[in-house]
Amino acid sequence: MPVVKFLGPFTLEAGKTNTHTIILPQYTGSVRTMIVAGSERAFGAAEKSVLVKDPLMLLVTAPRVVSPGEKVALPVSIFIQKDGIKDIVIKAEGNDLVSFEEKTKTISVSATGEKDSEFSFTAGGKTGKAKISVTATGGEESATYNMEIDVRSPNPPDTRAEIKVIRQGEKFETTFKPFGIEGSNSALLEVSSLPSINLEKRMDYLLDYPYGCSEQITSAAFPQLWIGELTSNDKTITQTASANITEAISKLISRQMINGGIALWPGSSQPDNWVTSYAGHFMTEAERKGYSIPAGFRQKWISFQKKSAQEWHFDSRYKQTANDQAYRLFSLALAGQPDKGAMNRLRETLGIPQLSRWLLAAAFVTTGRPEVAAGLLDVRNINTETEFSDYYYGSEMRDKAIILYTLTLLKNEEQALPLLKTICDNFNNEYWYSTQSIAWGLFAYMKWTELIPGDKNSPSTFNMVFNGSKSDQKILSKQVWSKDLRQNNDNNSLVIENNSDKPLYVTLTRKGIPMVSNATREEKGLSMKIDYLDMALKPADQKNLKQGSDFIMVVKITNNTFSMIDNIALTEMVPSGWEIQNTRLYETDYGIKESTYDYRDFRDDRVNTYFSLTQGQTKTFVLILNAAYKGEFYQPAIWCEAMYTPNCYSRYPGIPVKITGQ
Predict the structure, then answer these.
(1) Quick one: pLDDT at residue 470?
(2) Greatest CA separation for the chain
(3) Which of 310, 353, 567, 634 is the most buried (most CB within 10 A)?
């Protein structure tokens, strides 16, 4: 990639000469210097190429990322540009994330030119930045090459939550050890006067979710709008949330299409209706919290929503689309641009789903007509039709969260409390929920807390002792008090005693990344077949490859369910020693027909592919790979999952792989 430096402008008097010194970063090669001069209406230019070189130069190459415990070859190229250099001593050093088998080598040189050598290192047992420095010395000349490599674990983080209710005078006592790779483990304590919703664990899931469609971007940011109001004792939490929200706003702005709708993926040919309402809902709430939303985004979004609302017509064969229309109308009402005619038409439509009624009620109460909203609802029935729960990223839990949100807007605390408890109980178990369900559950919970102001006259208090520290009394000034606990490497002890006359909800959330994944071969609803071929389309052994060889990974995914599955994500992570050839950048003919997909995301160490499958359909996806670096690596698990359908996935466990010299 070319690097350009601009200097000036400078003034040079007639007949004078000036010299400029330019300091380049670590660089070897040709530099073209160009000068443009002007005086009144006269202009001139000159240029010259200069070879940048030293008598002794180094070039060191390594994978972009490595995993803990991997053994990697580190190629070193030495360029000798001076006569008389006979012997060169090469020395390799690294920080605590790098362990070299041999740190010093001596190379004999007979003439100028290039010499190749290599070191071998093992990545440390924790994550971080591996820093490597290679120095070559000979003939009174020396050269140094510095580099950094990310040491990252290919395994997903493991989160464990312990939740207890302690009443007046009771104690919560526990002991625990850190787990996972050193540096990846953490422990967070939350004490709340409200029923626990397992906030840290569920929020972590949203923030760590590896994909990035517009729904997931919105879901990760939405609950963070209320973090500062829910918990305020840790300023770092609110600062991080603010940065995340700002980044999400920027990404969603980039996803807005020319007609004002929001695309699910970059490059999508048409907007996603539910995501357009969802993103607009988030943007409106963010603006109310003080975040800046461009007027152009808002105007185009409102125009798209109103046009879509006016064009929508009810069809009993596709009655679930009424949910989409109702959410569209609510998002417009919340933004201060209600379409009252469309609201009344939907209100008078017979046979619309229950969820539509709840969303429409939210629209009416937002426009100041709570009596109309109440007439739409039967608060004795807080269920929705399960046959529609899969539409628009939904689930039964997501729909219950929408109902809780609407009851909060209606200030109907009596009916909201049992529903709140149901959502909290479900979030406190180990059941999987999609990003949409978690986000709605969290921000509906947070919105509900606005109805329950903290008792400033009689706040809840508790004592905390961690690892034998002095007993420290804490006051719940907000709904949730939280603290990061700095763990010992061995046993840790925690004691919480409730001093108030109200129950307290204690959640201890611990997190760590395992060194080795214990994932096994498993299929539920989706089946996956993986083949490795050489460039002649003959079988190849990916566990033992020659350095420099190109090969092909062919993945076939089949839908074994009895219905269509939308929003499937295939994650193909590769070992550190493999490099991915981005086939989007050039024409290639490898003799295998690849299936269509909705979006594909190429990264340094993985490729994420997103697509849908009809009943019984199989799709084929192809990657061209290169065995670039010698060493012993770990191939991470290959995972395919339906992002919004529970228990629908296929997984191939990871295995060790090796790349040897040619």
Answers:
(1) 85
(2) 96
(3) 634
